[in-house]
From TrEMBL:
Source species, domain of life: Bacteria
Name of the featured protein: Enoyl-CoA hydratase/isomerase family protein
InterPro entries per UniProt: ClpP/crotonase-like_dom_sf, Enoyl-CoA_hydra/iso
SUPFAM superfamilies, per database record: ClpP/crotonase
Length: 240
């Protein structure tokens, strides 16, 4: 479900479920966790993350949700949070190359990366709170600031790449034809410091709150009735 181009200078990971808009199934999440573990073990200095097809990622894969137990759903959300924290805390310099219409956990994947790039016309929406789920909200607020995060998350508003650039969520607007240049510039940025100095910098600037974020996610996902809340959200989305 992912493609990994292991180059000598960096690894390029591509989400490869274009028919499902790269939605995050349980299997895809586990493949990504393994890929980032492998990149760290290989001391890869830079890892880029992009999506095949019409968008970077449509977020949590709702396929078959009705057949899964509430416990299974909670575990799936926990594993996504585990993946997000792994990326955010990675010693690798991580680059998200987003495009298209991105939702929920797909937006959270972008937020977890150190350099966030999006193509012209990209949009983002984080509707998790519509069904009572707190996933990635705190990390998003740490990037864009609490007032802006509140404005966006309270209404699950879609925001475009221009707003994302203005509030700092996206650092650079660049289409696929510019990705080579983005990676080259990112490699130069990485090479400006030794691996040891870069690790020290990442450590002192680390704002991650892994245990707190996970605890909040579990509390929100474990409230009984997650099936009904998701069903109600999907029904309202179809009407809209």
């Amino acid at each position: 479900m992912i493609l990994i181009d292991r180059q000598s200078t960096h690894w390029a990971i591509t989400l490869n479920r274009p028919d499902k808009l790269n939605a995050l199934s349980a299997a895809l999440v586990e493949e990504l966790i393994q890929a980032f573990d492998a990149a760290e073990a290989a001391h890869t200095p830079l890892v880029s993350l992009q999506g095949e097809g019409r968008c970077f990622s449509a977020g949590f894969d709702m396929s078959g949700v009705e057949t899964q137990s509430e416990g299974d759903l909670v575990l799936r959300f926990i594993r996504i949070e585990t993946l997000l924290n792994k990326i955010a805390s990675s010693p690798c310099f991580t680059v998200a190359l987003a495009h298209g219409r991105n939702f929920g956990a797909g937006v959270d994947l972008v937020a977890a990366c150190k350099l966030r790039v999006a193509a012209p016309g990209s949009t983002f929406r984080m509707p998790g709170l519509k069904f009572g789920l707190v996933l990635g909200s705190a990390r998003f607020a740490r990037i864009v600031g609490t007032p802006e995060a509140r404005r966006i998350l309270e209404t699950a508003a879609t925001f475009d790449v221009e707003r994302a650039s203005a509030n700092g969520f996206i650092e650079r607007i660049a289409g696929p034809e510019e990705h080579f240049m983005v990676i080259e510039e990112a490699l130069a940025r990485v090479g400006a410091l030794s691996a040891e100095s870069r690790a020290l910098l990442y450590g002192v600037l680390d704002t991650e709150q892994a245990n707190t974020d996970l605890a909040v996610l579990v509390r929100s996902a474990a409230v009984p009735g997650i099936h009904k809340r998701i069903e109600a959200y999907l029904a309202s989305s179809k009407k809209a």
